[in-house]
Amino acid sequence: MRQNPFGNGYESQGGQRRGFGFNPRLLILVAFIGYAAYYYFSNRTVDPLTGEKVLIDKSISPQEEKALGLQAYQEILQQERPVDANSPIVAEVREIAQRLIAKIPQVSDALAAEHGLQAQHIENEFEWAVTVLQSDQANAFCLPGGKMAVYTGLVPVAQNKDAMAVVMGHEITHALLRHGAQRMTEQKLAQIGQMAGAMSGMDAQQMQMVMAVYGYGRSLPYARKQETQADEMGLMLAAAACYNPHEAIALWQRMDQASGGQAPPEFSSTHPSSGTRIQNLQALMPKAMEYRKRFCEQGGAAGAL
Predict the structure, then answer these.
(1) Could you give the CA distance from residue 154 to residue 14 in angstroms, rounded to a whole number?
(2) Which residue in 246, 80, 233, 251 sits closest to 164, CA to CA?
(3) Exposure string (b/e) for 200-233, b if CB count within 10 Å is 16 or more?
(4) What is the pTM of this model?
(5) Cβ distance 226 to 174 under 8 Å?
(6) How does strand 11-13 pair with strand 147-151?
(7) pLDDT range class, residue 302, cuts 50, 70, 90
(8) Number of structural domains, the chain?
């Protein structure tokens, strides 16, 4: 019998060939992992307002975000009931929005300067609009491109203009930090992982376990980090616009009471717990008061809504 000179392809025994075998699914999995790594590192950028590296797909431009925000806003207005534009609450909410928006350039420049960077000022392309929606939800939002809404259910929880400014500043910050584009990018990364799992032969149970690990280990902490970032810059905006940042503490105490203890545990939520938020906001209060002293150009704005 002639011996295989390489000793690594196959052996001849009893007239049969014995191969080591090759699983093409393994190659597919490696290829997906390689693409995911390329996608991740090629779309990393530094956010000048936070100084942190973020993941934003370069194909998602602020203009595309703005178009998606407008589309979502129009759909919401068709489904929800706006409050009469001439009502006092609409006038007050719009006044708060105007004051916050006016301070965005100064606050953005100041935050970016803290990291030795320059603000991009994507707000220059925004087309701002503010609506109050009739609903029991204690909520508000600001979509990419500057379309905002406040639900009437937030008014009794906020109780005053200072607290409302904290909430609205938080929502505006989500748009300024391009959190929407970051979430879309994260979703694409998760889809790449799902495709890799499916192509590599994972069954439904295995896929569910992998996605659960991704959710608790990556997705949920990432969402909570975005909320913390929005809390910080939103607080600075409110302070710079002459609102009392200390009202943020009482606001989240009331938010906690309004939830009636029904909020999910922090580790399984997209938002930090009220206790965590209060602790973070208390730590930020000296900085917020510094921003108020630096940028506030008029007296306090405390008062009931």
Answers:
(1) 81
(2) 251
(3) bebeeeeeeeeeeebeeeebbebbbbbbbbbbbb
(4) 0.87
(5) yes
(6) unpaired
(7) low
(8) 1
In this predicted structure, the answer to whether residue 28 has a pLDDT above a threshold of 70 is yes
H or E element in which residue 18 lies: strand 16-18
Residue indicated by tokens 């917020």: 288
If you write DSSP's letter for every residue of 147-169 in order, what string do you get? EEEEEGGGHHHH-BHHHHHHHHH
In a domain, 176, yes or no: yes
The total of other beta-carbon atoms located within 10 Å of residue 84's CB is 10
Closest of 269, 258, 86 to residue 167, by C-alpha: 258
Q: Is residue 21 part of a domain?
A: no
Provide the 10 A C-beta neighbour count for residue 18: 10
DSSP alpha helices (H): ranges in 43-154? 62-79, 88-114
Amino acid of residue 196 = A
Q: Give Cα separations from 151 to 76, 117, 154, 250 (angstroms).
A: 12, 36, 6, 19
Close Cβ partners of 14 (under 8 Å, ≥ 6 residues apart): none
Position 191 in a domain: yes
Tokens, residue 287: 């900085």
Structural domain of 103: 42-295
Question: How far is CA 303 from each of CA 121, 243, 249, 292, rounded to the nearest angstrom?
Answer: 31, 10, 16, 17
| Contact between 123 and 131 (Cβ < 8 Å) | no
* Closest C-alpha to 104, from 52, 171, 22: 171
Please check whether residue 149 lies inside any domain of the structure.
yes
175-206 pLDDT, tens digit each: 999 999 999 999 998 888 888 777 777 777 87
174 token code pair: 């989500």
161 touches 305 (CB < 8 A): yes
The residues carrying an active-site annotation are: 171
Do the Cβ atoms of 172 and 234 come closer than 8 Å? Answer: yes
Cα gap 37→33, rounded to integer Å: 6
Radius of gyration of the chain (CA): 25
